[in-house]
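Researcher: We plan to redesign the surface later, but first we want a full-length starting point. Tokens attached.
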């Protein structure tokens, strides 16, 4: 298990985490799951993140956290993306900000 703290506020659509997913088997269903929490303070932009599984420029699967309000601070939630790999091509995981805010 690892912890990864990120300032998810930036330009909308800015990818702040990208990981290649090599060696996926064709015709196999995979599940990606991540636990997240906000540590934003009152008056700060509330984060909203999107998790995308990409195959080249094509989005294979996607989910979003929705806006994490200050009332949700330090409440851990889970986001899950399930997808079936249809080819032996390499896929990528992208995590991007979906909220406008000041640059990181």
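Model: Full-length starting sequence:
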């Amino acid at each position: 298990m690892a912890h990864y703290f990120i300032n998810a506020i930036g330009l909308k659509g800015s990818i702040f985490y990208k990981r290649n997913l090599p060696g996926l088997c064709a015709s196999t269903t995979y599940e990606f799951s991540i636990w997240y929490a906000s540590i934003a303070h009152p008056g700060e932009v509330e984060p909203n993140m999107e998790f995308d599984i990409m195959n080249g420029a094509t989005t294979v699967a996607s989910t979003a956290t929705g806006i994490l309000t200050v009332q949700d601070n330090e409440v851990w939630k889970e986001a899950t993306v399930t997808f079936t790999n249809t080819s032996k091509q390499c896929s990528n995981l992208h995590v991007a900000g979906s909220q406008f805010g000041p640059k990181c």
